[in-house]
Amino acid sequence: MSSLLQGVNLYLIGMMGAGKTTVGQLLAKHLGYGFLDTDSVITQSAGRSINQLFAEEGEAAFRQLESDVLAQVCAYTRLTIATGGGIILRTENWSYLHHGLVVWLDVPVELLYTRLAEDTTRPLLQDADPQGKLRSLLEQRTPLYSQADLKITVREEQTPEDIANRVIEAIPSVLKPQVSQ
Ligand SMILES: Nc1ncnc2c1ncn2[C@@H]1O[C@H](COP(=O)(O)OP(=O)(O)O)[C@@H](O)[C@H]1O
Ligand SMILES: O=C(O)C1=C[C@@H](OP(=O)(O)O)[C@@H](O)[C@H](O)C1
Ligand SMILES: [Mg+2]
């Protein structure tokens, strides 16, 4: 599989709670790739949490940091990159994402909500109706997530390892092997 990918980066996109960070680490291990999470790069370099950045700088400033990180990351190869759920919002980000293979982890809202019900690290879900918020974000973002090269539909019983395996199995369907002359 690594030889078929030829070092091309894998970008995981999808909603908060879809499992991008969790599955991305497993995928990197399977592929012999490095792993990066855009949220972690941002929080490490800013020395502040995502909650702090949203509260102190605002979402627009966070989105700029996210674009800056993506622009830097795409200079490297052999990486699996877990993105933040909103990375798809800026058109300019797609010019970076399309340098690699983009995989959408599509997870039903009910499952996202179950996973994140106790979570306090996603500022956009600090809402009176977090499930409704997830539903409306997914509705707004679905046309953008749909621009991925690969869509992996996730069911409740599937473990992160199952999902990583499904991604690996699906890669050949979107990559043509190079014919040697
Ligand atoms: N396939 C899965 N099955 C059960 N729980 C999962 C699965 N994938 C992720 N999780 C859990 O859901 C939460 C959100 O996962 P995370 O990887 O942080 O998602 P994202 O980065 O897409 O927001 C974490 O608590 C994680 O352990
Ligand atoms: O969907 C979003 O807009 C966001 C998703 C988060 O990342 P995860 O998708 O890893 O939770 C994080 O970037 C921030 O809270 C905003
Ligand atoms: Mg994440």
Automatic annotation (TrEMBL):
Mg(2+) binds at residue 21. It catalyses: shikimate + ATP = 3-phosphoshikimate + ADP + H(+). Binds 1 Mg(2+) ion per subunit. One of its GO terms (molecular function) is shikimate kinase activity. The keyword Transit peptide does not apply. It is found in: Cytoplasm. It is an enzyme of class 2 (transferase). Substrate binds at residues 39, 63, 85, 141. Catalyzes the specific phosphorylation of the 3-hydroxyl group of shikimic acid using ATP as a cosubstrate. ATP binds at residues 17-22, 122, 158. Its cofactor is Mg(2+). It comes from Nodularia spumigena UHCC 0060. It comes from the Bacteria. Pfam families: SKI (PF01202). This is Shikimate kinase. Its EC number is 2.7.1.71. Monomer.
